[in-house]
Amino acid sequence: MIHAPRGIKDRIPPEEDRFLALLSVAEEHLQKAGFKKVGLPIFELSALFTRSIGLETDIVEKEMYLFEDKGGERFALRPEGTASLLRLAIQHHLIEPARITRLSYQGPMFRHERPQAGRLRQFHQIGAEILGAITPQDNIDLLVVIDSISQKLNLPGTTLFINNMGCARCRPVFREALVEYLEAHQSGLCVTCQKRTATNPLRVLDCKVPDCQPIIEKAPSIIDFLCETSRIHHETVCSGLRNLSIPFTVNPRLVRGLDYYTETTFEFVSDALGSQSTWAAGGQYDGLIGQLEGPDVPGAGFAIGMERLSLLAEKAGTLPLPPDYSQDISIIPLGDLAVPLAQSLLRDLRSAGLSATGIFGATKIKQGFKQAERDGSRFLLIIGEDEIAKKELVVKDLLTSEQIPFPLFPLTSLIDHIRSVRDLKKVSPIS
Ligand code: ATP
Ligand code: MG
Nearest bound ligand to CA 106? Predict the structure, then answer.
């Protein structure tokens, strides 16, 4: 038997309905905040990600699903949405420097991670980006949107961590101080951090290796190195959050797993999630749009990990309920003549707005009955030669055991009857 690839989470009924309903909750919040949806491709030229996410990141170094197509071009399954959304926005001239463009996306992302609880190789994100003449207030607005989703779903144990990564002016000064510190502590760092001290020292702050933590904790803090502009940016975001009574904790070691962030970065973490506790994350990126050959303007955005959001909503008891899968009517045709009639009845009943299922393979009526029960059907219609000859349909109400005759033509009296009882309690499907 062929299993799903490792690190994949199948969603079986009614999980998928609940998942999509949860996604709609998030989508609604983004729509209310003015974000317009875009449809991103599942794969892109791999250069898009290597250029934007950064060569010395976990994603680019080891997590991308890379492939070459028959034309010899190098592609990657998208590991995240921001780079792809920016590529789309630049290509279609959606970014206007003096204006604000708000775009959102949702869909599966792919990373070759070590599978563990909360870490999948295919996971679903919904994300939003504000592009153009953005201000610190736009960062606050992103946080407000995520917070409103958190409030709506009553997510347990959530903390918002924020940081400021500095800008093109002050980041290099911090970087220099950090390198000096890390060089003095090389022997205590893991091999990757030793390498990254030279290639991408800020990444060291994002290292999860336990042995590195005491050194990382005592490293210089970016907040102490912020220039006047970045400091004001940071303070504006903090005071904006205070005004809105959104609690937060400043974490100067929050650098995120992608290289393009500048100024504000943030993570929403929940202690109800175990070790993979971040359920939403994002920040500002000043140089990325220009780097991808778009206008030289900043942007800011976030992504929510839907599987983690779903776990939290489930814990909170706010995961949307599955829809009613029960059927209004099941039809069992007996004999060759009855089959085409059953098929056209199904079509007519469905177009009248009812739910109807055909049970075609039943060799015994009892077996058909069982299937109808399993499908949660309220009514059962058995069509045999007699019924065809008399042009009469005898429908059994499975709740009351009543047998009710209806004319085959017109079908309206049967439809009206089902409609009149459909809002009453249905027989629940057997799962
Ligand atoms: P980490 O440092 O935990 O690896 P990251 O920096 O790679 O995180 P982002 O790329 O910012 O994470 O992803 C945003 C959100 O998407 C995460 O907070 C999480 O909710 C979700 N996410 C990321 N990777 C995975 C994964 N492998 N499985 C499930 N969800 C994920
Ligand atoms: Mg990661």
Answer: 1
